[in-house]
Amino acid sequence: MQAHVIALDQGTTSSRAIVFDDRGRPVSSARYPLTQHYPRPGWVEHDPGEILETTLLAAASAFEHSGLSGSDIAAVGITNQRETTILWERATGRPVMNAIVWQCRRTAEIADRLREQGCADYIRQKTGLLPDAYFSGTKLRWMLDNVPGAQARAERGELLFGTVDSWLIWNLTGAHVSDLSNCARTMLLDIDRGCWDEELCRMLNIPMAVLPRPVSNSEIYGRIRPGLRGLEALAGVPVCGAAGDQQAALFGQGCLAPGQIKNTYGTGCFTLMNTGTRSLRSGHGLLTSIGWRLGGETTYVLEGSVFNAGSSIQWLRDELKLIGSASEVDVLAETVPDNGGVYLVSAFTGLGAPHWDMYARGAIVGLTRGTTRAHIARAALEGIAYQVADLCDTMALDMGGPVRDLWVDGGAAVSDFMMQFQADLLRCPVNRPKMLETTAAGAAYLAGLCAGVWDSPARLCGIRELDRAFLPAMEAERAAGYRRQWNKAVRRAMNWAEDE
Asked: Top-level CATH class of 4-245?
């Protein structure tokens, strides 16, 4: 019986594949690392061929270890690192250069020019984004400027652009498409109409012939073509679900109702709120994107980021040598009853929403002779939770209602101490699922819905299993006092670099 789905999870540092059964449980998985290329300071690239090769290897390995036959696989879904930009030849499939990764800042000058030309308001109105090197449109412009002959070839229709979802789907099926959640992060899509915007393309002088066809997040894009090494048994299986990694995680968490929020605790934190069918523009600097389109209806999201979350724990380990491994930080933090008045603001690369201060820098305040490394460890964990709480409060202001609960995933979500403190700050439940692979699960769910493995999104909420719900335990007045002190610490860290 066709009751299994393969999710391809192509991330920044690795390519993974997970086989899920019809109860949403992982059956088998495989992961292959991805090489990082840094040709200049601030530049980050990937080899598109390696992206494809590692994804196919992961898929073949996960399928082999599942013990299933090709007839047992109903669908393939894809989730991916967002904004990473690839340009390739239509006739041969050869990339014209390495992929420019979402982290790469080489196109900052292009974003600056857009702001100087007065384009920011139009970009925000149409895309829900701000002019920034982060997004794919500026990266594509750089490629067309710097690869000899690329602009002319693009205008003749000889080149194709895509984010990683599009690159994988094209190689798996031959279809040049991109799902709307990824299209929405290019800075070229009118998110209200769900189509490429001619004026945005004119601003960046991008020939529309290179752009993939925008598609929904759950439909048949094509079928796996014969002859793919290791996937011969899957020839003909539909590729029919796709979403950018953060939107996939929101879907995988079952945050299907307006007002529901998820946070992924990784190197940074990505917080997304479902705003329903409203493409709500934030009054506090949050980004607006498409979450997904299902059955002709589009769901939108607000998004905010904590630039340094897990990286602050890595800093304690690698630079300060206060801990030997990341797992030690919880144990150390719980050896003291409170933070001893110490606050760590991990603004190593500035602060995002709601503060938006790129001149902020990291700070530890409240130190006394009684301060120990345990207090600093505790302050680092608490600092992550404070920043997530700030984002959630900002989203609540934009939505006009309180945060009802928070769903969590990512490596640091295993910290019972931090999840409990998060609940205490937010004054609402913090829900941690048993399976933290929510990004891959979201891709599997989107594909499985199209293939009939699951009959409705509501059914997916029923298969989600909760590991633990952390409920507020701290007195509200005490939690409010902590947050007042946190806000003071943030003010100390802000505008620090302006004198440099």
From this structure: alpha beta
